[in-house]
Amino acid sequence: MGDERGNQDTSSKIRTRPTMKGEVSVPNEADAFRVLFETMIYGAVFQDAKGKIILANSAAERILGLTRDQMMGRESVDPRWNATRINGSDYPGTEHPAMIALKTGKAVNNQIMGVFNPFRGERRWIVVNAIPLYREGERRPFQVYTTFSDETQRINAEENLRLYNHMLQHDLRNDLQIMMSHIDAVEVLGLDTDDIISDLLKSLRATCTRMTNLVGAMNIESEISETKLIDMLRRIADSSEEIHKGLKVIVKGDSDTESISIPSHRLLANVFHNLMRNAAQYCGKNPVVILQVAEKDDRVLIRVSDNGPGIPKSIRSSLFMRGVSTNGGGLGLFLTREILRACGGDIRLEVSGIGEGAVFMIDLPVDRKVTAEKGE
Question: Which of 49, 60, 324, 357 is disulfide-compatible with 56, CB 3.0–4.6 A?
Answer without folding.
Answer: 60
